[in-house]
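(Fold this chain)
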Amino acid sequence: MSEIKKIMQQPLFKITSLNSVHILLKLVFGFITSKALAIFVGANGMAYVGNFRAFLNVVENFSLLGIQNAIVKYVAEYQHDKLKLKSVLATFGLLLLTSSIVISLVLIFGANYLSKEIFHHSEIYSFVFYILAIVFPLYVFSTFCISVVNGFQEYKKVIYIQIISSSIALLFSVFLIYYYNTFGALISLVLAPVFVFFVSLFYLRNVISFSDVFSFQSFDFLVVKNLSEYVLMALVSGVIGSFVLLEIRTDVIEITGLKNAGIYEGLQRISSYYLLFISSIMAIYFYPKLAEPNSNTKAIILNYLKTIIPVFAIGLAVIYFLRKFIIQVLFSTEFETMETLFLWQLVGDLLKAISLIFGTILIATKQTKAFIITEIVSLFIMYFSTNWMLHAIGIDGIVIAHTFTYFMYLLILVIYFRKLFFLKNE
């Protein structure tokens, strides 16, 4: 009993417990949204939603350019130095304002072209891009605000922000999908980060001010110079990676058809729900720990592999045995063929979860060269293995390629970090 009590008193356990509540709510919210999409939009509409989500990742990552990771690191480092903190916030704030305005202008002038490219030669959704252009600065600054809170290591506040904003977004999503079908689903994707911005702004109201964020006098070119590693890593992982995923979705539509693309999108929605457990824990707990000077990297890795991965693996096993029930509850009979895709998707996601800690180390410790090489290799493997497998065996090929990609990626990272594993604790 004393050992159990000791574990429950650990910060990681407390954060994980609260985060689990958040994940549970996200699962419930995801169930409601997925069911609404299945009923009112169908597989074809869900394929469009998937493509638009991939496009949003491209433009968001391009506008952020890895700054969100730098914000967490520098806020954590200078949180007790008000002058340096103000300089960091102003520099990041002005950079993001500039990039978001540029992206907004591109969205306005390229709306018709983007609509045709993203929505399979259809211009009827051009208006979605105009709305996105208007709210895009808020879209970008939602990430800025969350990163600032995370940098202060206010783990509970980060989770509360996500819970509240997700609740609001759910209500709007269901309303928009019910009344406006596919168009409403696309608009709900645009508005969700806006709610994050306003909720996180409420939590930060007594911590930072607009004058801190948009102060030209506090802008520091030295901070910009130090961002080069983050920008390079973001270009590879965020922009190029998101673009590759968008191209893969396009290939799925062209090779297997719009319906299969919608079924694949449904599977990716399920995957994103349980991977949220891993990514959120990584972002709010492990990344700040790894970014700290003189952090015990080996101990952090072992902690992650011993405490998080076993629970995650058990959860994946449960999902596999309940896959028929999950499809029936979350979707409709139109999505029944998704069942054959589960096994390889789950195995690939387990490998992805294990490899995530190693990739995070590369980002947190600014090992730029190693990060870029491993990412480019993994993206190369992902795209060409997926394209080949789709042509060879159809829609099943994409999940087999998914597992193969992350097996190779994890193998490369383990080889790279092999010396760390064989270091003896002093």
